[in-house]
Amino acid sequence: MHANWTTTDIDEPQVNALAAALGISPVTATLLVARGHGTPEAARTFLSPSLAGLRPPHRLFGMDTAVERLIRAITHDEMIFICGDYDADGITSTALLVTFLQSTGAKVGWHLPHRVSDGYGFHASQVTEHAHPAGAKVIITVDCGSTSFEAVEAAKSCGIDVIITDHHTTGDTLPEALAIINPKQPACESGMQDLAGVGVAFYLAVALRKGLRDINHWGKKGEPNLKALCDMVALGTIADIVPLTGENRILTRAGLDMINQKTRPGIVSLLTASKVTAQEVGAEDIAFRLAPRINAAGRMDNAQVGLDLMLATSQKQAAPIAKELCRLNTQRQDTEAQIFEEIVDYINESPGLLDRKSFVLAKNGWHPGVLGIVASRVVREYGKPAFVISVDARGLGKGSGRSIPGVDLYQALKSTADTLERFGGHRQAAGLQLQASRIVEFHRRLEAHLSESTTDDDYITTLPADARLPLSEITPALIDELETLAPFGEGNREPLFIAENIPVLSSSEVGRGHRRYLLDTSGNSHLNKCMAIRFNHPGGPPEKRISRCLYTLRWNRWNGSKSPQLQIHDMEV
Predict the structure, then answer these.
(1) Rounded-to-integer distance, Cα 22 and Cα 32, Å
(2) HSE (side-chain half, CA atoms, 13 Å) at 528
(3) Of 128, 193, 118, whose CA–CA distance to 139 is shortest?
(4) Which tens digits make up the pLDDT trace of 369-408?
(5) Distances in Å between the alpha carbon of 50 and those of 201, 206, 225, 392?
(6) Measured torsion, CA atoms of residues 187, 189, 195, 198, in degrees rounded to the nearest 10
């Protein structure tokens, strides 16, 4: 896969004015302008996100109806039943509402679906086998439900009101639920369409707390502190890879504050079990250490394991659950690696596959819980859209697809819809179901669509650098300023810099296939050498010079001290 590095032209007078107004470096001012925070007011708001900056919950369509019904359920001692999803967003959403509703004194029940036996979403079986037998009068869905027509009808026939909270794309028609709170529905003009499912659930808690305040429900016991729930909001939001801007940035920053206070036994135990030793837990720790372990429950076993961790009331209770999640994650990694190795061997044995515009890879019995992760690895390795499909004993194939920026996967599936039984998703990720006998035809049709709709340029990866930053210009103050732009993630990526003509003092392979460099920073008055790391790239250049490199810059903290470190993302020697 070929990659181009690009930089964006920035209005220098605006950059200089912002740098002077805020007393920051031109580099940081350039980053702020490029991210749309070019005025001092906008930049200050971005750099210092506050819960006071959240837009009011009543702007979400359906909120007032939902709050009114839930107040009636709470004051009349009616059972409220939560139906969630099996990923980290759905698990944290469920845990958040269960925790909050219990603080109101409500009767609460819940159920999470099983990935294999139930599949994604809110199902009629959840109503008839779980909610109705529990005596539910109200069902709240979290992170799902916007296309669950049959389940809503099943609930209505049982005399149960349904409140849908979700953030997924809706169709032209919606289920006839009592209320639907989904910022992506056509009737919602809140501007909060980037919220994760757990963010929507948090907003419902905010609105319901105020509604109960208005009827003096809290009395002498006092209202619950909703910032205390933001740790779960941060976990679910980062795990779901939604843009870390606007409300999501505010909620994630508040959630990271709570995580670092180490108040929730489940999260504390998971940090310990996953060996997160950082002095301050950041978004990267959640994305690469905590979230995969929470997701492993739904992928390899039952999402209830992850929910049990979030609801644990002591570290004694949480510690064995955290260890089990780590075990499931290791099992997930091994299963994923095995399938990926099979795919690589197959492609190596059939090199003609590399001439195609996509991969469609299928086999009997592949574990359905890891197909999306494997598809992502195939895309990273080969730079082409990929579908990975598991075929069951009945000859039914279920698969996940991932794409490259230049190819719209959802449109590709629409063009092949008559070969499929079901499909859904969006531009970069999708799922499908089809008969095994139609897999070859599906791939043929997919190739035809891509041949007509794409060009070679669509398969060239572009790596957008933010600025040229010679190593001689790195300062401690600049690294401190870069940290104020965090948390980094979708929509607010970590800044990428280009440096050229870098002398290499030494390099060595470290860990499992990584390479560490010691770089010469001559001309820098603050440091004369700097460490750098390149992950998943054991090979290195001659230990003399790097012609160009694309890198991120951060503090490497260890044992109470810190030093500058580059993470190299791409290089030319």
Answers:
(1) 11
(2) 0
(3) 128
(4) 999 999 999 999 999 999 999 999 999 999 999 999 999 9
(5) 19, 15, 15, 49
(6) -60
Per the document, the length of the chain is 573
State the average pLDDT over residues 337-344. 97
| Nearest Cα residue to 111 out of 138, 137, 81, 136 | 81
Query: For residue 257, which amino acid is it?
Result: D
Residue 166 near residue 177 (C-beta atoms within 8 A): no
User: Which among 130, 136, 126, 133 is positioned nearest to 159, based on CA atoms?
Assistant: 136
Nearest alpha-carbon partner for 209 in 191, 227, 182: 227
Whole-number Å distance between alpha carbons of 57 and 202: 9
> H helices of 104-229, where?
124-126, 149-157, 197-214
- Which helix (H) or strand (E) covers residue 66, if one does? helix 63-75
Nearest to 351 by CA among 385, 382, 391, 374: 382
Residue 119 vs residues 68, 112, 115, 405: alpha-carbon distances, Å: 31, 10, 5, 28
The enclosing H or E element of 147 equals: none
pLDDT for res 267: 98
Q: Give residues with Cβ within 8 angstroms of 193, minimum separation 6.
A: 167, 183, 184
170 contacts 193 by C-beta, under 8 angstroms: no
Three-class DSSP labels, 269-320: HHHHHCCCCCCCCCHHHHHHHHHHHHHHHHHHCCCHHHHHHHHCCCHHHHHH
In this prediction, residue 279 carries a pLDDT of 82
* Rg, C-alpha atoms of the chain: 25
Could you tell me the two tokens for 416?
């092949």
Q: What percent of the chain has pLDDT over 90?
A: 86
Full set of structural domains in the chain with CATH: 3-48+465-572 (2.40.50.460), 57-261 (3.90.1640.30), 350-461 (3.10.310.30)
Tell me if the pTM is above 0.85.
yes
Q: Is the pLDDT higher at 229 or at 490?
A: 229
pLDDT-derived band at 513 (thresholds 50, 70, 90) equals: confident
**Cβ 439 vs Cβ 411: under 8 Å:** no
Structure tokens at 360: 């469609």
Alpha carbons 60 and 55: distance in angstroms, whole number: 10
Burial annotation 509-530 (CB, 10 A radius, 16+ → b, else e): eeeeeebbbebebeebeeeeeb
180 forms beta bridges with: 164
